[in-house]
Amino acid sequence: MHDPLGNERMPRLDCGAAVLRPWQMDDLDSLVASANDESVSRGLRDRFPYPYSGDDGRAWLAYAVRASEPLWALEIDGAAVGGVSLHPGSDVHRHAAELGYWLAQRYWNRGVMSRVIAEFAPRAMRAYGLYRLYAAVYEGNPSSCRVLEKCGFVHEGVNKSAVVKRGRLLDLHMYARTVPALPGEAGHAA
Ligand SMILES: CC(C)(COP(=O)(O)OP(=O)(O)OC[C@H]1O[C@@H](n2cnc3c(N)ncnc32)[C@H](O)[C@@H]1OP(=O)(O)O)[C@@H](O)C(=O)NCCC(=O)NCCS
What we know:
The protein has one domain (6-178): 3-Layer(aba) Sandwich (Aminopeptidase). It is an alpha+beta fold. It has helices at residues 28-35, 38-41, 54-64, 112-127, 142-150; strands spanning 13-14, 19-21, 71-76, 79-88, 96-103, 132-138, 154-165, 168-178. An eight-stranded mixed beta sheet has the order 1-2-3-4-5-6-8-7, with helices on both faces. The protein is globular. It starts with 12 loop residues before the first strand and ends in a 12-residue tail after the last strand. The protein is built from five helices and eight strands. Coenzyme A is lined by residues 40, 43-44, 101-103, 108-114, 135, 137, 141-144, 146-147.
């Protein structure tokens, strides 16, 4: 289900190390410079291609500026150098969402994404009425696992042989932050 409000429920979030804000068409140059990196695309779905061309960037921005999905550009020093996304579920999964994120390699290992997700996760869960925010990390991505662990996500288990990426069959590590009960239900934290 696409959220009809897109990112309007949380249009801008200052995370200290970076700002989350809507994508803009003039993000093209910094988007392509940041995204055209095999090391970045390796941890992501194939719809985030490598090589990442100008046409790929234009197609993404044309989608992202109008998307009803909640998507944010991650801005550092005035340039869009990464992204954060929510993929809300539908039907009985409508209060759960998958979290996605990426960052230009030149900013890795400085604590940027840990800071961003620590700010983003609790606020997004409240803003979008989520009881479950989860991330699925491909085998061999310890940096992403570490970000999630530092941000209070629990390692729930491993989906064996779940992903084929670049010709390799990979396990999927599932992480989640959850609210244990509906408001008013036993176990709900007031
Ligand atoms: C995953 C990603 C967002 C991390 O961003 P980042 O800003 O570098 O993350 P942080 O610096 O906040 O934290 C990284 C942590 O991983 C640790 N780390 C890095 N490489 C590691 C390795 N090989 N083994 C173990 N830990 C490692 C870092 O030391 C750091 O932990 P620490 O703060 O306890 O020292 C970034 O690497 C990225 O964009 N990757 C490509 C896209 C991707 O994989 N997205 C996630 C999809 S699930």
